[in-house]
Amino acid sequence: MPGRQKADDVPGTFEYIIWFVGALLEASVVVCSLLRGPFRRYFTLNLYMSTSVLVSVGRYLVFSRHGWTSPEYTYFYYYSDAILTICLYFALMGLYAIVFEELKATMPLRVFMMLLLIGTALFSYSVVHQSESRMLTHYVVEISQNLYFVGLILTYVLWAALLKLRESRVRVIQIVLSLGVYFSINAANYALHNAYPNLRVIWEYLPPAAGMFLPIAWIYAFMRFDDEARLAPGRLAVVPR
Amino acid sequence: MSRISTAVLLAMLVLAGAMGLKTVVTTHGDGSVLMANGTAPVPPTPWRNGTAPVPPTPWKNGTAPVPPTPWNGTAPVPPTPW
């Protein structure tokens, strides 16, 4: 396996490079967003990316001080992952607000998203409340997992809404599609991991690859397209003369 | 009001769909956790320290069948003697 020291199975050079490049790409999303102007409009996306950069720095500090298998790094990793998943949920909320802004459906949308968040939190609690030890940790991991799958469904719903509303803003389409691909890769990878545990080479490297794909796709969306850029109509209506 | 009710219904539908999808994806899972945010190396699951087999629970001594509880019936359960 590239860069991995097999003896004690600790992250090697390859993992460090992926980690560093990933954090750099996430920071680049925020910088590109600031440079091109849509920082406030896509604030929740930038909030997610900024938090991700900060979390990466924090993880590195804890990792370098305590080591990979230390309880400190383990707990920091899982608790910070829950925070990131909640930020990702808010990023989705922001995308919904942008897509549905012309329908004047802000209030029902907020009610919908907040109810879903509360419902997920309660459901997660109902799953773990009988845990006798480390209940908070179980809860944090459970809510992170559940929110992840809620996010996956919400992204597909948003994708369907884009098609239904005939959305033509290229930047919005690019961001939503890349988010859908990102969620799908991770979910498929997790299912693959469970079905074929021997294919470690694949399931171990897909999540970092997806983690790098998302900021690259968003950088492309911010740098390549303006907010007003529209898709050219696929076919023009033929007017009979 | 109807729009709010629709939002509530949709929220419940999405939650049910997401949990159903999670169940499908994790059906044959080994208890590992799906971690997707960032590119940092994933540490072991916090409640899976080591790979040793899990010992039996301490209050199940032996493999003999468990005797019936002494308070059959519907009478109120007395306080524990200790």
Summarize the helices and strands and which ones pair or pack.
The complex is a heterodimer of chains A (241) and B (82).
Chain A: H1 13-36, H2 43-66, H3 71-99, H4 106-128, H5 135-164, H6 170-195, H7 200-224
Helix pairs in contact in A: 1-2, 1-7, 2-3, 3-5, 4-5, 5-6, 6-7
Chain B: H1 2-25
Compose a concise summary of this entry.
The complex is a heterodimer of chains A (241) and B (82). Chain A contains seven helices and no strands.
Can you offer a commentary on this structure?
The complex is a heterodimer of chains A (241) and B (82). By secondary structure, chain A is an all-alpha fold. In chain A, 75% of the residues lie in helices and 0% in strands. Chain A is built from 7 helices and no strands. Chain A has helices at residues 13-36, 43-66, 71-99, 106-128, 135-164, 170-195, 200-224. Chain B is mainly alpha-helical and 82 residues long. Helix content of chain B is 29%, strand content 0%. In chain B, 21% of the residues are buried.
Biggest β-sheet strands, sense, barrel of chain B: none
Which residues of chain A form runs of ≥5 with pLDDT under 50? 1-7
Distance between the termini of chain B: 56 Å
Portion in strands of chain A: under 5%
| Low-confidence parts of chain B | 49-61
Helix coverage percent of chain B: 25-40%
Keywords:
heterodimer, A: 241 residues, mainly alpha, 7 helices, 0% strand, disordered N terminus, B: 82 residues, 1 helix, 29% helix
